[in-house]
């Protein structure tokens, strides 16, 4: 259902069909992936929504329930999938994923190796980046986790872009068939330094590796190993801060107190008194912006390195 062909990415020209995967959006922190099936329905606090009413509508449509409540039907994207997927392991979120895809220099047609697959959050974004002619080969040592990830990729229509295999990359390294064939490699392992010799053999000349580690001690040891065959070694920590923008009631000129720029322009309205005279009443609402009370902090460290030309 993830349209990896650039010619099909315009969601305004795509309509929901029976069997499609849609993201049912209630609000920014409440959404769910739903498979459309004729004769089925979706229930939430806003009421009952019949799938048959969704078929034929364009993605992004607002649909109402029998009670008058509404939701939006969004096209699945890697960004939205990251927010609704089942967490089998700790996952990477959009802030880290965006830097990974950028610094690994992934473009359509690339061959990317990944270890481990986990819940498949990053894998989905890698697949979109290499589409339509590239390939992501992802490995996980846990057989059941790999099987569940494979099912998710098939459900999302990504089987043509992703190959899932069971393998202990720390102990065995990547398969020899990929020797010198990978444009980039991503590692999410407890001991990534054990896999670095194999990574060096898999990468093409000037290829790039990225290792995700939650602890700085892992980063230090990985960098020691990388120095023998890699150059341009860099480590990043991403701290994302989001803001709440909402309208609040204010009293009189309190919002302008102490403002270095003076009073902000506000709408005025005329009200009539009993005697027939008019008074100027100022608007009692203002748009407020402040950091969210719950801000996600440290997720991990991203270490990038480029294979040195010998």
From TrEMBL:
Where it sits in the cell: the answer is: Nucleus
Q: What is the lineage of its organism?
A: Eukaryota, Viridiplantae, Streptophyta, Embryophyta, Tracheophyta
Q: Name one GO molecular function term.
A: tRNA (adenine(58)-N1)-methyltransferase activity
Q: Which PROSITE patterns match?
A: SAM_TRM61
* GO terms for biological process, alphabetical: tRNA methylation
Residue span of region Disordered: 251-273
Which InterPro entries is this protein grouped with? SAM-dependent_MTases_sf (IPR029063), TRM61_C (IPR049470), tRNA_MeTrfase_Gcd14 (IPR014816)
The alphabetical list of record keywords is: Methyltransferase, Nucleus, S-adenosyl-L-methionine, Transferase, tRNA processing
Q: Which GO terms describe its cellular component?
A: nucleus; tRNA (m1A) methyltransferase complex
Q: Which family does it belong to?
A: Belongs to the class I-like SAM-binding methyltransferase superfamily. TRM61 family.
Q: Which annotated residues bind S-adenosyl-L-methionine?
A: 119-122, 140, 168, 188
Q: What is this protein called?
A: tRNA (adenine(58)-N(1))-methyltransferase
What Pfam family is a match, any one?
GCD14
According to its UniProt record, this protein's enzyme class is transferase
Write the Enzyme Commission number(s) for this entry: 2.1.1.220
Q: Could you tell me which residue ranges the tRNA (adenine(58)-N(1))-methyltransferase catalytic subunit TRM61 C-terminal domain spans?
A: 69-306
Q: What is its main location?
A: nucleus
Enumerate the catalysed reactions: adenosine(58) in tRNA + S-adenosyl-L-methionine = N(1)-methyladenosine(58) in tRNA + S-adenosyl-L-homocysteine + H(+)
């Amino acid at each position: 259902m993830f349209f990896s062909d650039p010619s099909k990415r315009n969601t305004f020209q795509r309509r929901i069909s029976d069997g499609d995967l849609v993201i049912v959006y209630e609000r920014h922190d409440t959404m769910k992936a739903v498979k459309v099936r004729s004769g089925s329905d979706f229930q939430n606090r806003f009421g009952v929504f019949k799938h048959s009413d969704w078929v034929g509508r364009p993605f992004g449509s607002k649909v109402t329930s029998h009670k008058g409540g509404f939701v939006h039907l969004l096209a699945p994207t890697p960004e939205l999938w990251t927010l609704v997927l089942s967490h089998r392991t700790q996952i990477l979120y959009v802030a880290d994923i965006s830097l990974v895809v950028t610094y690994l220099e992934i473009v359509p047609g690339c061959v990317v190796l990944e270890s481990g697959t986990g819940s498949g959050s990053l894998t989905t974004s890698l697949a979109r980046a290499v589409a339509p002619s590239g390939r992501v080969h992802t490995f996980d040592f846990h057989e059941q986790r790999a099987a569940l990830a494979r099912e998710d990729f098939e459900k999302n229509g990504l089987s043509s872009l992703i190959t899932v295999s069971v393998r202990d990359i720390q102990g065995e390294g990547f398969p020899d068939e990929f020797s010198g064939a990978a444009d980039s490699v991503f590692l999410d392992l407890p001991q990534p330094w054990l896999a670095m010799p194999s990574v060096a053999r898999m990468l093409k000349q000037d290829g790039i590796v990225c290792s995700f580690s939650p602890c700085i001690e892992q980063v230090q040891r990985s960098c020691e190993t990388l120095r023998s065959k890699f150059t341009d070694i860099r480590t990043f920590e991403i701290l994302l801060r989001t803001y709440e923008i909402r309208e609040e009631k204010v009293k009189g000129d309190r919002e302008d107190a102490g403002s270095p720029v003076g009073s902000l322009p506000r709408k005025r309205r005329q009200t009539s008194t009993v005697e027939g005279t008019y008074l100027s009443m100022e608007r009692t609402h203002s748009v407020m912006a402040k950091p969210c009370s719950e801000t996600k902090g440290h997720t991990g460290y991203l270490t990038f390195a480029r294979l040195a030309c010998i």
